[in-house]
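Worked example 2:
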Amino acid sequence: MFQHLEAAQVIADQIGDSFICYLISRATGRYNVDQHIEEMFYVYGRAVFSANVFEWRLVLAILQIEFLKNAQKEMIRTKGKSFDQQKFKRDLRIFLKDQSKKPVGKLIERLHKFPEFDQKLKKRIGNAAMQRNTLVHRFWRDSMLTAVSREGRDKIIEKIEAISASLDEVDSEVEATLRPIWKSLGFDENESDEFAEEFAAKTFGDLTEASTK
């Protein structure tokens, strides 16, 4: 796997990355059960991250199609004469927080009403949501006995990686569908990314602070 095994081992030692250590042990034929278990949970964590990115993309879709497009229509209708910037920002954050608290099933119910998403993509979003639910709610309940053996852990890793790849793929499809909507709202690609990141940080930061009080 590594052309220069000694150099790779030095790098692994320097950064203390047990996952890379596991890859090296596999390349040299030395099996380490603890590292194998660590890899299994590593790929699981990566898949859960993909599931959260997917959910956040659905929130952004509702924000764009339902809130921002309506705000744009109202702005055009009134020619901006009654626009209250502070109220807009406040309403936007409240809307985003409300959507962020909803389960993925409720988000998908709303998305199904939007003509911007074709039936094929809606079906893929629904399938991705089922994968997400399995991953988060019952994956280990179904896989606990499989995880006790080396071969079982290999199968689990393969299954998790497939789920993660599927979630990433659907997320990219939703993002591609939203891109022209962002453009119609006056955002270029970089601005839309910055917008999403800023409001995610503010919204989830506020939610975190509120939960600790």
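The mean pLDDT is 79. The chain is about 80% helix and 0% strand.
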